[in-house]
Amino acid sequence: MGTGKNVMVFIETRRGKIADVSLELISAANRLAGKLGGSVEAVAIGYKLHDELKTLGQYGCGRVYYTDDERLAHFTSIPYAKTVVRTVREYQPGVVLFGATTMGRDVAPQVASTLMCGLTADCTDLQIGEHDLKDVHYENTLMQIRPAFGGNIVATIVSPESVPSMATVREGVMKMIEPDPKKSVEIINEPCQVAAADFLTEILEVVSEEKQVNLKAAQIIVSAGMGANDPDGLALVRELAKVLGGELGCSRPVVDSGVLAKDHQVGQTGTTVRPNLYIACGISGQIQHRAGMSEAKRIIAINKDPQAPIFAIAHYAIVGDVKNVLAKMIKAYKNKA
Fold this sequence. Notes:
The chain is of the alpha/beta class. About 25% of the residues lie in helices and about 30% in strands. The chain has 2 domains: about 5-200, HUPs (Rossmann fold), CATH 3.40.50; about 215-335, TPP-binding domain (Rossmann fold), CATH 3.40.50.1220. It contains 9 helices and 17 strands. The strands form 4 sheets. Strands 7-11-6-1-4-5-12 form a 7-stranded parallel beta sheet, with helices on both faces. A 5-stranded parallel beta sheet has the order 14-13-15-16-17. Helix 8 links the parallel strand 15 and strand 16.
């Protein structure tokens, strides 16, 4: 992994605001840097972001290397990638983290290719550990954990000879720490050294489209599995979510069957959620789904199979026909309301 002990995070901004995934990564970087004996730093690119970047200090970022240029106000692939490459080369962190977003998945491979270092995509967990390779023992190695083979297994990937180790991390999988207003960040202004010829395109207009559902922010989620995948079952799941003031979620098979859009998917290959209440309706609870919702404060599971894996993590288990149970829950809540 190289001799660098610092962990660097690529900061994404959207409409002048730091993206949640970047704050999640700063939070995770604190844990990793603590085990490496280093500090947390960041690379930010944009225009007039000084005030916004001060927020990073509250999440434990010690320094941010900021390139401010009006031409970089909106994401442009090559200039952003070259700026990150220059920053990594100059400050030599041991680990570099990107969000597994459209932007991160664009920039990270270019940076890894230029620096000729390893990159693991779509990680769901990161740890620091030891690894033996070719009779060489490596300490303080980044263990990059991610689903593989269509989400059917969880693999741990290491690149101990990579300088630095790099990974993209899925949104929502790293828990964001509580900000400390007393903490501050050192903003180091970096010159823009991108040539005019690197700006191959001109952005004329930016059009943003909101997601159909924001599961990450939902405090109550009612999710449908294949046991509630038919029109009647799904209608009951949707109605319960509505009367509770929650959001509609689902398992991966429901998305794969074309019933609901991927924005509704909860799980390792979907969205990781931490609501106050999660109601799993007809979801068997395979490990991929549980990985995305097991940190909910309260879990109610409804399934006709008393041996369903979802019951292993549920606070309240209801064995029965999902349609009958949902109908009674909806009626009971309406009567109480």
